UniProtKB/TrEMBL annotation:
It comes from the Bacteria. Gene3D superfamilies: Winged helix-like DNA-binding domain superfamily/Winged helix DNA-binding domain. This is LysR family transcriptional regulator. InterPro entries: Molybdate_resp_trans_reg, WH-like_DNA-bd_sf, WH_DNA-bd_sf.
Amino acid sequence: MATLSIRIDLGGEGRIGPGKIDLLEAIRREGSISAAGRAMDMSYRRAWDLVDETTRICGRPVVASQTGGKHGGGARLTDFGEELIARYRAIEKAAARAARAELAALQSGTQPADIGIKREPDAA
């Protein structure tokens, strides 16, 4: 089945898309940026850069890091990081629902619904 991928462009600030959201979910699950990066076949440096970029784009921290100690360091999502994931996933679900019929038409090769798109006749 055809699927829809959502990328949110936040003006000139940057973009939030499935990769950054997947990384935040991995940080939530793994409890650290490095473990999340490993789970996604990504270097720690790349994972950290994406977290830093997301914080810059949003103007608010999405991850709170904890320095090492007896049991090592770690990271957890901030309340805003959790909210960002929830809002992104809600937008993704709403868009998928809205596009379901058109995606099915694309997949099956049938004519899409009339949504004001002029279709060129097939060349003979």
